[in-house]
Amino acid sequence: MPDKKIIEDYPYIRYSKVMLSDQEMRERSHFFFEAMDSRRSVREFSDSPVPREVIENLIKTASAAPSGAHKQPWTFCVVENPEIKKQIRIAAEEEEFESYESRMSSDWIEDLKPLGTDWRKPFLETAPYLIIVFRRIYELDSDQKKKNNYYVQESVGIATGFLLAAIHNAGLVSLTHTPSPMNFLTKTLNRPANEKPYLLIPVGYPAKECWVPDLKRKGLEDICVFY
Ligand code: IYR
Hints:
It comes from Flavobacterium hiemivividum. The protein is α+β, with helices and mostly antiparallel strands. The chain has helices spanning 22-37, 52-62, 82-103, 106-112, 123-126, 152-169, 184-188, 220-223; strands at residues 4-7, 10-13, 74-79, 129-136, 138-140, 146-148, 173-174, 195-204. The strands form three sheets. Strands 3-4-8-7 form a four-stranded antiparallel beta sheet. A two-stranded antiparallel sheet has the order 1-2. A two-stranded antiparallel sheet has the order 5-6. Residues 96, 112, 115, 117, 177-180 line the site of 3-iodo-tyrosine.
C-alpha cells in the first residue's frame, strides 16, 4: 500500500497508531497523569545554565500543537541576554507595582495571598531563559496584504500547554507569568505589528531551596461530567 496519495490536488500521507491493550492504555494514561500532576509553577529559580539545544527542542514541541487552519500563529522569543532580562524585569516590575498598588481588585489581591506573589519579579533575571510567547494576529502575503489567522487565542493556548508539558518533561521548571499590561515586550523585543505578547515563561532549574504553595487540585467529580 502506498504511503502517499493526492486527494483533490492536495498531498496526504498515511497515518495510523499502534492499538494498545486496555491494560497498557490504563498504565500509560495513569503514568502520564502522575507525571503531569507533579508539575508545579515555580517562582524561585536557579541560575544554572541549560543547553540551548534543550530549549530548541521544547519550542519545536510547542510548535507541534494543532492550530487553526494549521497557520501556527505563534512566535517564541527566547531571551538569554542578561541586559535584556534586566530591561524586562524593570519594565515588568513597574507595571506590576501599579497593578498590586491600585489596578487589581481587593478580591483579586485576596485570591493571590496563598500564592505569595507581589510586584517583585527577581526570577526575570535569575532564570537562564525567558520564553516570551507572541500570538500572530495576521500574516502579510507577498503583496503586503494582511491575512488574518484563525482561532489565534485557542491555538497559542494549546501550543503553550505543549510547551509547559515539554519543559516539565525535560526536568525543568517554569512559571506562566503575565505582567500586565505587557505591551512593553513588543518594544523591548522589537516585534512587528502583527505580533502581540501572550505569556512570559521563565525556564530553568528550581533554586536549591524552592518552596511552592501546598495547593490541592479539584477531583474528577468536580471537573468532569459523563453523559
Ligand atoms: N500578574 C501578576 C498577578 C498574578 C495574577 C494571577 I490570576 C496569578 O495567578 C498570579 C499572579 C503577577 O504575576 O504577580
